[in-house]
Structure formats: C-alpha cells, structure tokens
Amino acid sequence: MQPEPPHTRLRRLRRKQVEDRSALDALLDEVLVAHVGLVVDGHPLVLPTAFARDGDQLFLHGSTGSGWMRAAAAGAPACLTVTALDGLVVARSTFESSMRYRSAVVFGVLRRLDASARNLALDVITDKLLPGRREEVRASTAQEQRRTLVLAMVIEHWSLKVSDGWPDDVEEDRAGPAWAGVIPLRTAAGSPVGAPDLEEGVPVPSSVHAFVEARA
Amino acid sequence: MQPEPPHTRLRRLRRKQVEDRSALDALLDEVLVAHVGLVVDGHPLVLPTAFARDGDQLFLHGSTGSGWMRAAAAGAPACLTVTALDGLVVARSTFESSMRYRSAVVFGVLRRLDASARNLALDVITDKLLPGRREEVRASTAQEQRRTLVLAMVIEHWSLKVSDGWPDDVEEDRAGPAWAGVIPLRTAAGSPVGAPDLEEGVPVPSSVHAFVEARA
After folding, report:
1. Could you tell me the CATH number of the domain that includes residue B35?
2. Nearest CA in chain B to A131
3. Whether residue A4 has pLDDT greater than 60
4. Lowest mean pLDDT among A15-19, B65-69, B79-83, B113-117
5. Taking all residues of chain A, what is their mean pLDDT, rounded to a whole number?
6. pLDDT band, very low/low/confident/very high, at B2 (cuts 50, 70, 90)
7. What secondary structure, in 3-state letters, does chain B show?
8. Assembly ipTM
9. Given pLDDT bands bounded at 50, 70 and 90, which one contains residue A26?
10. Residue A189 falls within a domain, yes or no?
11. CA-to-CA distance for B40 and A177, rounded, in angstroms?
C-alpha cells in the first residue's frame, strides 16, 4: 500500500509558494546535490546525493553495492529536497532576520532503471554535473555501466518555496540606528587543481574552464 | 514505541567514515542549513532549516505557526543531515568522477524547549548565523521569543562521511591524454546590499564585514 504523499501546499507563508514549473526546473538544473529522504524501519533517513533532471524525471545514481539505493529501488516512497541558499537577510532585529533561499520538495517513489534507460540517464547526470565532459573522455564501458545503479522519480507532487525579499522591520526599528540589508551567498568555484598523478603540460579542458567561469 | 535509528556505520566506502567527534562538530558549526527528515503519515518529508549546535545539542527554530515543527515537537524521530560540497572530482573517465564533500547524519528525536532553554538556544542560533550581530541590535522582546518555537535534538547517534581525495583512474586512463583534477567549491558571500528602506550613511556593521570576509 503506497502512502499518500504529504500535502504539497504550504500552510504558512503562502506568499512564498511558487507554482511556476519552469522555476522548479531551473532550481533542479542549477543545484548539484539533493537531499533524499526515505523511511527505514519506521525512522527517517536523509542522504545527500548528486542528481539530474530530464523532463519530468529525476535521476540519482550510485554503486550497485549501495545498500540504501538497492533497498529503495523497488518503489520506496521518497522525498527529494533541493535547496539553494541565496543569502542572509540581516534585519534590524534578530527576530526579523532570516534567509533568502529557494527550496524544492518533490514527493514520489524511486524505481530502478533498466539497462538502456540507465545508460541514457547516466549521460544526463554527467552532462548536468560537468557539461561537455563526455566529449573529452572515453565512453563508459559496459562493465562500468553495469556497476552503476540509477534510480528515477517522476516529478508529479512538488512544492517550491522562494524567499527573496528584504528585511521587514517594524517602524520603531526602521527609525533606529541599526543597519539592514542582505548578504548574498552562492556556490563558488575556485581554480581547478591538477591531480597529483597528472603529467605536466596537460591543459585544463574546456568543460572545466566553462564550469569555473560560470561560478567564478 | 520509539523506532531504532538506522545503523550509523557505513556498509560501503568505510574508508570515508570519520569517527572524530571534533570533525563532526566543525562541520555542524560551519554549515548554516540542515536538511531535516521526518516521517509524516508513513511518508518521508525533508525540509531545509537553519540550525546551530551547543555542545551535544542541535537547535532548530521556527514560527509557533509552523505545522511541521509543532507536529515534530513531541518527540518525533528525526534525521538531521548536514552537507558541505567541497568540490568536483574530475577523473579521466566519467565513471571515476565524483565529488568532494563532508556529510553528517544525526539521528534522534526532536523535543520542544521550554521558555528559558528556548531563549538561550535562540542566542546560540543567532551567534552562529551572524556572530556579533546580537551586540549591534536591540534585544528580542518577550513577545518575539514567545512567537518562536525551538526544537532540540541530542547528538548521540551520528555518522560522518568525508570524501576529500583525488581521481583514482585506472592505469590505462592515466596513460591517456585526458586531464584530471579537482574543481574546489565553497559557499561564498558577496558584497552586502543595504535594504531599500535603509537611511543613507548607515555603515555596514562589523558583524556583516566579518561574515563576508570569512567567506570572500
């Protein structure tokens, strides 16, 4: 018996709820790591994992030796939450201080993909994490593909909450001397560092350059 | 009946497991947002939330109007997962490519703090998110404190997984032409932006300067 997913409508702060599917997709395509929630022996378990989206599907990958992925592969109810922390909202009181963020919650079941769907999904994941990289390296071998497990979840029940405002101080505080504003936050990439076993003179490839430039 | 938490020992990749409590504390003190997992009507629910640590306790805060916090306040089994994404590990094959990360999973139950413990915990949370800010603004009013709900979880069952290595390519790939290395990733702060209702000439306070400098 499949439990019903929790309601996806916010009870509080409804003004933060965003119904726009393209805003959901943009967040899912930007953030590299999701937090996946499962129920294990009645207890919640939350694990971070790389993921990617293709249309209405979300893909997670791992080793065929991954215990939680094997356990979840047969249709486990799951919650996939994807969060971008965009800033600290610094109000004139600590009570009104908060955060700017975008957070998507997707409810569904996880299912293991068969070999051909799995191989396509692995390309989708690679192309999200480091676009252009597949064209710079050899193709995966059939053995590597077989050692990889890919789970998929259909995007059907979801909610998106976006907090992008300014401090909302009471009048008394606005008249006071304290500063108020926002400290922007983002995921930034540093300069790429060659591996210890890299031969001298091997240039940093364009996939890596593009990734770093987009997050410099 | 309290379900037993899932095992906190890694079945795979045991070399990534870190037993050092100080490494756990450092991660919990560095990362601003946790992903909290709950079981709601048999279904997993994962929500992002600000949090802070004080000794062996973790604190979450929210509005007394928060449905999930009220529901969880009476001892709900919970999983609090805290992740820092430290880099992309770019191997000479997509199969060996991975991520650098630190990820803590803490299992326990959430309990609502009473008024005096709540007020102390709110200071702990503020002092983590923006150290020094409390000294720059007025104290919270009793009414503000009453409108805030703080949940606590004792750190007892936890695991910490750290991936901080280099690409581990097979010999054939190492002899090939492809680049390999790491792209460092971190949470970076941008220049603070004053609120639209901020009077001209109010200087950026030292708490904000220090926060930005630590993440520049």
Report:
1. 2.30.110.10
2. B94
3. no
4. A15-19
5. 93
6. very low
7. CCCCCCCCCCCCCHHHECCCHHHHHHHHHHCCEEEEEEEECCEEEEEEEEEEEECCEEEEEEECCCHHHHHHCEEEEEEEEEEEEEEEEECCCCCCCEEEEEEEEEEEEEEECCHHHHHHHHHHHHHHHCCCHHHHCCCCCHHHHHCEEEEEEECCEEEEEEECCCCCCCHHHHCCCCCCEEEEEEEEECCCEECCCCCCCCCCCHHHHHHHHHCC
8. 0.94
9. very high
10. no
11. 45
pLDDT band at A13 (very low <50, low <70, confident <90, very high): low
pTM score, whole prediction: 0.94
Which chain A positions have a beta carbon within 8 Å of B92's beta carbon? 137-138
Interface touch A35/B46, C-beta < 8 Å = yes
Residue A101 counted as domain residue: yes
| CA–CA distance, A62 with B146 (Å, rounded to integer) | 45
Q: Where in the sequence is the domain holding A112, given as residue range(s)?
A: 10-164+200-215
- Asked if B68 and A8 count as a contact pair (C-beta separation under 8 A), the reply is no
pLDDT at residue number A12: 58
Show residues of chain A in contact with B140, CB under 8 Å. Answer: 93-95
Mean pLDDT of B4-29: 77
Beta carbons of B50 and A79 less than 8 Å apart: no
Residues of B in contact with A70 (CB under 8 A): none
Number of domains in chain B: 1
Largest CA distance in chain B: 67
Q: Where are the alpha helices (DSSP H) in chain B?
A: 21-30, 67-72, 115-129, 142-146, 171-174, 206-214
Query: What is the rounded CA–CA span in Å between residue A35 and residue A50?
Result: 9
Q: What is the pLDDT of residue B74?
A: 87
pLDDT bin (cut points 50, 70, 90) of residue A74 is: confident
How confident is the model at residue A15, as a pLDDT?
Answer: 72
Q: How many CA atoms lie within 13 A of A181 on its CB side?
A: 21
Q: What are phi and psi of B19, to 5 degrees?
A: -95, -5
Task: Confirm whether A169 is domain-assigned.
Answer: no
A174 inside domain:
no
A105 SS3 class:
strand
